[in-house]
Structure formats: structure tokens, C-alpha cells
Specification:
single chain; Immunoglobulin-like; Helix Hairpins; 4 domains; seven-stranded mixed sheet; 18 helices; 58% helix
Length: 702
């Protein structure tokens, strides 16, 4: 009886579990009014697919026996690889408000036949014609259907998508609103323009190298650049616009040809760049074998049968990239051929993206990605090609240096022979003695020059030391009178009874002048210490940044104290020179007060996040112009039109102190309502570790 009860409980639990899975797989994706505007709504996780190996089923066949068709859910984007027949995709949608602005995007525009079936409201399904991928006017349709208008009702409805292609059926499905999709394409226009412009410049540069150095490597790289640009055009959906003089079938055939040519050009270029034949003959043989196999695939692609060899080409590209990566690591680690470091960085920078995309093309998605990485590939292509161009330029420079070194060696050998002959002749003549005397005189003259040079260097060093002593002396002499002025101003405030308004005004002016001169002196001293480097810091210690804020608050007068609001946090232990960091905080507070109205408030907030302490100083001034936001950190720079006095040293010295303390000082935000300067310093790791241990101990006790 007990065993029967346990079995009954297990059956009930499994029934509930499978019922939840069934309800989840059949639930519709609800679209809100704000969806598809800022970013697309991904259908990943809401798709079910069915592989029709014959490719003969119609929508009526699929719908009439929908319960018998073995649709299976997919957890992310479509990665069906090179599939024979057709792929049916089913998904369910509903919208909170009925709108005609919804659009379905097939993100990777390389699938030849895409048909969307939508409910017609009469119990049947109708074909939704594809739209244009670009808003530009044109008579011909896109070679690859990519964007489809979609009527979506408030009642959950099922939609079907039929995909059939000779290329890899790898794509992400997204829902957009039409205006947002237009903005998305305009951004693609900018990305594509930058890619094409960069490739065009690199093509011209490598053609110049080819003419100058007469080496085939640069011709091959120019070929690779052209193929890379064409692949980016196809991936970003511009094939129909650029190749509008071709019919769709020719554009489809062109894709397979371009891929094969790209694989051949890439292997030829890497063979020449890393000198396979020079380092390992078997590597050169493998490279030639890969080129030959891609050449066979090129014949199939030219005949319009790329679908028969597409999977083979993708798999071959994966293996060849892995082989080249291993060979490059062998050159760097085992053979220590460090002249290939820049070339290796350029090649390995994009190999990860290419390998992931090739895995997706062959039907694998181990990372459960939900986009086709087209934009990432376009941007990565530019970076990859720029780095490769730099590597090629370095190769050209090394070649030129090699030629110059060879010429110098020949000249040196000839000069040495000439000198030997001259010495032998002079040994037989009386002129040898005169030459020796002249040589001795020259040596003596150079020794005298060396002595004079050393004396000059000693004089310069003495002058620098005197200058530092002078700066310290002047600063010390300034502090005494300034202290007297400050003390007198304070006494005058309490002793003078007549005309208190005028007296207070003069006293405030004296106080502000004293503070300004004191801050200038502190900045000059801080700058002098910074010029000597971080090792010249007077006293490096670990302290709490809250103490700096308390010190800064105590140094404010009554008026400034009312305007500045300090926000503290828990312990923020940092390591550095306490006095220099006090100068940084005081500079930021004085700038905030100076460039704000007399009635505006300033907030100084201390916070910590992920091992970094932040001091944010927020004012309510007029903000900083975009053109001045980086220049204000330059030495002696002052923005045009500023009425407030200043030396242009405060922000420069503050950033230098922050950077030499392991942190940074940036302008975090600035607009018409005010500016925010952010001082960041690393929290001392030992203190951070001890704080974490204490926190764990407290949690364990609780």
C-alpha cells in the first residue's frame, strides 16, 4: 500500500510537470504598445520548427494535421544549417492594441525562399507579401525576403513561416514597429558606409605597397579586402541594392562564389603572411590542400550548386581557421617568432566570431545566441582588416629596413676594406705619424667636449634643484603673510562696529582672495611634486575617503558650508597621499562653487561599487560646452567667455593626482542644469578582503 501511494504521487507530479510544459510551449507572445520601438522583440524561445525533408507540404497540409506534425520547440534562434527540403516555423502572437505597424524581420538576409502565412480571419491562412529591406525607392524586389508586414490581432493566433534555401538556414526572428525598423536600417547604413570607406582606403594603401615593394602579398590582400567588403554587404542586407543589375538567381549564385573566393584568398594571404613554407613544409602542403578543395567548391558554386557543398565549405573554413590559429601559437610560443605578434593579434581578434558563426551555419548553437552577429561581424571585419593592414604595413617597413640594412652592410664592408688599404699605405709613409697625432688631438678634443657636457648637465641639475628650493621658499614666504591677512580679516569682522555691511564685504573679499591664493599655492606645490613622479609622494598611506570629506567640509566658510551638501557612505579605504587627495577634493568643490550662482547648492557624494570608490561633485551651473569637455583637463586651459578667475591648473593637477594614485577624474555629465565630476580610486584590496570576511562572519552568525 505504501509503494502504491508513492507511485501515485509520482504520476500526479509528472502529469503536472508535463502539463506546465505543454501550456508553456503553446502560449502566445503578447505584444505591448511600446514593444518593437526602442529594440526588437525577439521570438527566440517562442518558436517551434518542423523539417519537411521532401519540401512538398503546403500550408493546408500543415494546418489540417497540425496535431500530428512533429513540431519541436527551439530554445533560441534558428540554426538548422544546410537542410534539404523546407523548414516550417510556427509561433503564436497577440497584441494589446491592433496596429498595422508590426513587421517580422528575418535577421540574416541570406535565405532564398521565405514565405509568411498569416490568418485571414476566415479560418484559413494567406501569404503575406514581403516588404523592402530598405525604404529607398526601386522597382525590383529584394533577392532575399527579409521584412514582412504582419497583421496582429488581440486574440492569440498562430503564424507559419516556410524557409527553403541552398545556404545555411540560420537566422533570428524579430518583431518591429515600422518606424523603429527604419531607424534600425539607417544605423546599418552608417555602419556599412564606415566599413566600405575603411576597406576602400586600405585597398588603395595596399595597391601602393604592391607597386612600391613589388610583392604579391599586397595584391592577395587587396583581393581579400574586396571579398570581405562583399561578404559584409550580403550579411547586412545590401546585396540587392549594390547588385541591382543582376537578377535574384544570379545574386544567389554570387553568394556561393564570393564565399569560396574569400576562403581561397584568406588561405593564400595567411600562407604568405606567416610564411608556412619557410617554417614548416607540411603547413604549406595543408594550405595548398585547403585552397584546392575550396577551388572545387567554387566550381560547384559557379554552376549554381553551392547548396551541395555549402556545409562542406563552412566545415572546411572552421578546420582551416583552427589549424592556422594553432600554427600561429606554435610560431609565437615554441619558435619564438615575435615578429608575427601584430599579425597574430589581427588574425585571432576575429577568429572567435567567425568560428561561432560557422558553427551556427552548420547547425550548432552551443551558446544559445539569439541574433546572427551580422553587425558584430561588420564591425569586427573593420577592426580585423585594420589590424591586418597594420601588420602588412609593418611587414613593408621591415622589408624596407632589411634592404637598407643589406645596403649598409655592403657599404660598411667596402669602407672597411678601404680603411685597411689606407692604413697599409700609411704604414709605409711618414704620413702615419701625422695621422696618429691628428687622431690623438681629436680624442683629446672629444674628451674635453665630454667634460664640458658633464659640467653643463651638472649645472642644469643644480638649476633644477635651486628652482625647486625657490618654489618651496616662495610658497613658505607666501603662507606667512596670507595667514596674517586671514587673521586680520577675522579680527576686523568682530572689532569694527560702524558700517558693518561695507566691512563684511571687504572682509569676505579678503577671505576669498586668501583662499584663492592658498589654493593656487597648493596646486603649484602639488604640480611640482607630480613632476617628480609617484615615487615622490610625501606619505602614502591607507585611509578612509570619508575623512577627506570631513576635512574639506571643515575648511569651508559659513556661506560655502551652507551651500555644500556632503553625502557619506560606509568605509571607503584607499591608498595614496592624503594631502594630495585633499587638494583634488578641494579643487572640485571650489570649482563647483565658483561656476555656480551664489544661491545654488553643490552636492558631494561618496559611494563604492565593485572595489572602486567614487566621489561625485554635482553643481547647478550652466554646464560645459562639448568642445571644452576634454580641453578643461589640459594645463593652463580656460574655456572662452569665463568671468570667474582661475589659473587653469586645478583640473589638470587633480586628474594627474588621481591617475598617479591608480584612479581617474572624469567629467561624468554636463548639461544646462549643471555638471558632475567623478573622482574614482581603487579600494585597497586587503581592506576589501577583510570587509568581505567580516560580512560573511556576520551572515554566518545571523
Amino acid at each position: 500500500m505504501r509503494f502504491s501511494g508513492i507511485r501515485l504521487c509520482l504520476l500526479v507530479a509528472l502529469s503536472i510537470f508535463f502539463a506546465c510544459l505543454a501550456s508553456r510551449s503553446t502560449s502566445a507572445l503578447m505584444l505591448e504598445q511600446a514593444d518593437g520601438i526602442e529594440s526588437p522583440v525577439s521570438l527566440s524561445g517562442h518558436l517551434a520548427i518542423f523539417h519537411d525533408s521532401s519540401g512538398a507540404l503546403t500550408i493546408d497540409d500543415v494546418v489540417s494535421v497540425r496535431d500530428q506534425v512533429p513540431f519541436r520547440p527551439v530554445p533560441s534562434m534558428l540554426t538548422e544549417g544546410y537542410s534539404r527540403g523546407a523548414i516550417w516555423v510556427r509561433f503564436s502572437l497577440s497584441a494589446a492594441t491592433i496596429s498595422k505597424q508590426w513587421m517580422l524581420q528575418v535577421e540574416r538576409p541570406l535565405i532564398e525562399q521565405v514565405t509568411l502565412y498569416v490568418p485571414d480571419g476566415k479560418g484559413h491562412y494567406a501569404v503575406s507579401p514581403p516588404g523592402r529591406i530598405s525604404s529607398r525607392k526601386g522597382n525590383s524586389a529584394d533577392a532575399y525576403p527579409t521584412i514582412f508586414p504582419m497583421p496582429i490581432s488581440s486574440i492569440p493566433s498562430e503564424y507559419y513561416l516556410r524557409l527553403q534555401s541552398s545556404t545555411s538556414i540560420t537566422s533570428a526572428l524579430n518583431i518591429w514597429q515600422s518606424q523603429a525598423y527604419d531607424r534600425y536600417r539607417r544605423l546599418d547604413d552608417w555602419i556599412m558606409a564606415m566599413v566600405v570607406g575603411a576597406i576602400f582606403v586600405m585597398i588603395l594603401t595596399n595597391l601602393l605597397y604592391a607597386v612600391w615593394l613589388r610583392e604579391q602579398l599586397y595584391i592577395i590582400y587587396t583581393w581579400l579586402l574586396v571579398q570581405s567588403g562583399l561578404i559584409s554587404l550580403f550579411h547586412m542586407g545590401y546585396a540587392s541594392e549594390v547588385l541591382q543589375f543582376l537578377d535574384p538567381a544570379s545574386i544567389h549564385r554570387s553568394w556561393g562564389i564570393i564565399v569560396c573566393l574569400y576562403s581561397i584568398a584568406m588561405m593564400l594571404f595567411l600562407d604568405r603572411l606567416f610564411e608556412f613554407r619557410h617554417h614548416w613544409l607540411w603547413a604549406a602542403a595543408i594550405s595548398q590542400g585547403v585552397i584546392l578543395l575550396n577551388g572545387v567548391a567554387l566550381v560547384f558554386a559557379t554552376m549554381g550548386r553551392y547548396g551541395d557543398v555549402g556545409f562542406f565549405v563552412s566545415r572546411l573554413q572552421q578546420l582551416s581557421l583552427i589549424f592556422v590559429a594553432a600554427f600561429v601559437l606554435y610560431l609565437l610560443i615554441v619558435r619564438r617568432q615575435y615578429q608575427y605578434v601584430l599579425s597574430a593579434i589581427a588574425f585571432l581578434s576575429v577568429i572567435g566570431v567567425l568560428l561561432v558563426m560557422q558553427m551556427m551555419y552548420t547547425g550548432a548553437n552551443p551558446f544559445l545566441l539569439d541574433n546572427s552577429l551580422s553587425r558584430l561581424l561588420a564591425g569586427g571585419t573593420v577592426i580585423h582588416l585594420i589590424l591586418l593592414s597594420a601588420a602588412v604595413a609593418q611587414r613593408a617597413r621591415l622589408a624596407e629596413h632589411g634592404l637598407r640594412a643589406a645596403k649598409d652592410r655592403v657599404i660598411a664592408i667596402s669602407q672597411a676594406a678601404e680603411r685597411d688599404l689606407t692604413i697599409k699605405v700609411r704604414e709605409r709613409t711618414v704620413e702615419l705619424a701625422e695621422s696618429n697625432a691628428s687622431l690623438k688631438a681629436e680624442v683629446d678634443r672629444r674628451r674635453q667636449l665630454e667634460t664640458m657636457l658633464r659640467q653643463s648637465l651638472d649645472s642644469v641639475n643644480n638649476a633644477l634643484a635651486q628652482q625647486q628650493d625657490f618654489v618651496a621658499m616662495v610658497s613658505h614666504e607666501f603662507r606667512g603673510p596670507l595667514a596674517v591677512i586671514a587673521s586680520t580679516a577675522d579680527n576686523l569682522r568682530f572689532s569694527v562696529a560702524e558700517d558693518p555691511g561695507n566691512v563684511d564685504l571687504r572682509i569676505d573679499r579678503i577671505g576669498r582672495t586668501v583662499k584663492r591664493m592658498s589654493m593656487l599655492i597648493e596646486n603649484i606645490l602639488a604640480g611640482d611634486r607630480l613632476n617628480a613622479g609617484p615615487g615622490s609622494f610625501a606619505k602614502v598611506e591607507v585611509f578612509d575617503l570619508n575623512e577627506i570629506l570631513h576635512t574639506a567640509k571643515a575648511g569651508l566658510d559659513d556661506d560655502a558650508g551652507r551651500r555644500v551638501n556632503f553625502v557619506h557612505c560606509g568605509a571607503a579605504m584607499v591608498k595614496g597621499d592624503r594631502i594630495l587627495l585633499e587638494v583634488v577634493v578641494q579643487n572640485l568643490i571650489q570649482n563647483a562653487l565658483k561656476y555656480s550662482a551664489a544661491t545654488d547648492f553643490v552636492r558631494v557624494q561618496l559611494s563604492t561599487d565593485q572595489g572602486v570608490a567614487f566621489v561625485n561633485v554635482v553643481d547647478q551651473g550652466n554646464g560645459i560646452a562639448h568642445s571644452d569637455r576634454e580641453l578643461i583637463f589640459m594645463k593652463y586651459y580656460r574655456a572662452a567667455g569665463q568671468s570667474a578667475s582661475g589659473s587653469g591648473l586645478g583640473l589638470y593637477i587633480s586628474r594627474e593626482i588621481a591617475q598617479q594614485s591608480g584612479g581617474d577624474l572624469i567629467l561624468a555629465a554636463s548639461d544646462a542644469t549643471g555638471s558632475t565630476f567623478c573622482l574614482s580610486l581603487p579600494i585597497e584590496q586587503t581592506t576589501l578582503h577583510l570587509t568581505g570576511l567580516n560580512r560573511d562572519a556576520v551572515q554566518a552568525q545571523s
